[in-house]
Structures are given as structure tokens and as C-alpha cells.
Amino acid sequence: MSPSPSDTGHPADETSSGAVDGIDFAHPSERVAAEILDFYRVRWEYEPTTFPIEWDSNGNVIASFSPDFYLPDFDVYIELTTMSQKLVTKKNRKVRRLKELYPDVNIRIFYQKDFRRLLQRFGLAVEEQPQRVGGGVVIAKDEDQGE
Amino acid sequence: MASPPLPESCDAVLLSEERIRERVTELGAALTRDYEGQELRLVTVLRGGLIFLADLARATDVPLQLDFMAVSPYAPGRGGVVRVTKDLDDDITDAAVVLVEDVIDTGLTVNYVLSLLRARRPRSLEVCALLDKDVRRIADVPIAHRGFRIPDRFVVGYGLDLKGRYRNLPYVATLREDALEVR
Fold it and tell me: How does pLDDT run across B42-101, given as a tens digit for each residue?
């Protein structure tokens, strides 16, 4: 059973900014993550691979998982889970299953607190998003820049 | 002289002044051994690595030079890529270079800086990091000399900051979760 590339993958141009334009990110924090990767000139693909993780008795895929980013230079998948911690149990279960089925796949999960700390290391304040728009945290709009 | 009290925004001292001093002395001894008979360039990226660099240099007993780089911070929504805002003053071609880092977290910054330094063809290039927070590592950075592996906490002090503050604490402290402002 092999994972399949989805049609939403967009490899970033290593040398130019603006690779995020034209991609319909599922959550604002994913766009910020893509911008950060662009900033550090790290090539990325958005949801390029769908991993089947559960099948019915006839062998039909009934559950799959598409990590948010793949970084070909580091051969690592990144999953951003910026919703509140209590809502991540389902996602954790999927990641655990993926690791069981595909032990050679490297995947890192960034929880809301990890993403918040990363942004705050850049000197950026963050604000909570209402659940109706996906929850999680995004950069505060009126934030001035620090180092 | 007693260490300053823990700021209200911190919940614990993770690495005491004494523990840091002992470890930096050990790291300096390791560099002295590894680079015996060579002249060393210690390079750091401003500003977080400055205090570690200053102490490490004084714990290292080989001829050495210090040099500094600075890179632009990520600015949301502005696009663009990381830029060198202060370049090295000296040529490092054929030099033995050690990149001195305060903390390696995702590894993205170090990975980028290493690529810049490698392109200048030093004779050797190694990383010496005081703190290695590898739980969320993205870029696989080779660390030749490591001070401490630390847990997945936001830390300040000994050069590390939150919005420019706490760099002058002589110890490394963990920040309280509620001090990480969320509006």
C-alpha cells in the first residue's frame, strides 16, 4: 500500500518569495508556516502525499492522512496542529497510525504551543482565532517587529 | 555575587550560572584540544549567541578571532527571504571556523547560516551550540559540540530573549506559559 501524491502539491521556488500565492491553505497558520519556510529558503510542498491509514475488509481505504508540508531537502513531513490542545487527540491518533504503517516516514508535529513559541522567538505576538474560523493562533495584526 | 532573582515571568532556573560556567569551561577545553596548533575563528549570529561566545572564547586556549553576522528576522506578510544585515568582517576562506549558537531549535536559521559560510570555503566548519532543543528539529544540523540538551520549553537568559528582554540574566530560565502573550 503506497501513499499517493495529491494534486494540491506546489513545490516552492527556492530562490523567490511569493510561493504561497495561489495556494488555498486550510488554515492561516499554514500560510505563515509556508512564509517562514520561504524566508529560510527551504523548499516545501503543500499536502503532496496522502497516506492511507485504514481499510475496510474489502481493502478499500476508509481513512487517510495528508501531512501539511513535505520538505524534500530534509526528507521530513510537517503537520501543523494549531487548534486547541484538547481537540488534537484525533490528529495524534492519525499520526501514530501513520508512524506504525510507514516507519520510514519522518514526520514532525507542531502543536499550537510550538507554533506560538516559534512566532514569539521571532518577536511576534499572537492572537487566538475563534473556533468558527478554525481556532488556533495567528500573528496579531497590529504587531510591531522585534528580533 | 549572587544571581539576580528570577523574573516574575519565569517559573524556574533551568541551568544555573555555575552549571553553565562549568559546561562552557568543558566546551572551551574541547575546542582547545580539537584545534591545537590551529588558529580558530569563532563566529556567532547576533544577538543571542553573544554572551556564550564571549565566555567560550575566554575558555578556549588557542589563537582565535571573533566575528559576527546578523540576519533579518522573519516579518509576517512581507514576503522575501532572510537577508544578511551584518556580514562577517573577515574572509574565512581556508580558515577553521566554529559557528557558535545560543540555541538550536528548528535548525532553520543555523542551516541557512551554515550554507552561507560553507560557500566561502572554510578549511573546516563546525557548530558549537550551548542549548540543543531537538524535539521540533526540522533541519538536521550537525552539532559537533553541545552544551546541554533541553526540554521543549521557551527559555530566556544568558543571551536568549523574549522581545529583547532577559538577555542579561546569568542563568537560563524557563518562561511561564502565561508569559507568552496570547491576545
Answer: 999 999 999 999 999 999 999 999 999 999 877 776 667 888 999 999 999 999 999 999
- Do residue A41 and residue B112 have CB atoms under 8 angstroms apart? yes
B103 assigned to some structural domain: yes
Residue of A nearest to B140 (CA): A74
> Residues B135-165: pLDDT tens digits?
888 998 999 999 999 998 889 999 999 888 9
ipTM comes to 0.78
The enclosing domain of B137 has a CATH number of 3.40.50.2020
Question: What's the 3-state SS for chain B?
Answer: CCCCCCCCCEEEEEECHHHHHHHHHHHHHHHHHHCCCCCEEEEEECCCCHHHHHHHHHCCCCCEEEEEEEECCCCCCCCCCCCEEECCCCCCCCCEEEEEEEEECCCHHHHHHHHHHHCCCCCEEEEEEEEECHHHCCCCCCCCEEEEECCCCCEEECCECECCECCCCCCEEEECHHHCCEC
Please indicate, yes or no, if residue B58 is contained in any of the structural domains: yes
| Residue B23 located in a structural domain | yes
Residues of B involved in catalysis: 105
For residue B4, being part of any structural domain is answered with no
Question: Cβ of B75 and A145 within 8 Å?
Answer: yes
Total domain count for chain B?
1
| Shortest CA gap A75–chain B (Å) | 9
Provide the residue range defining the domain that includes B165: 10-180
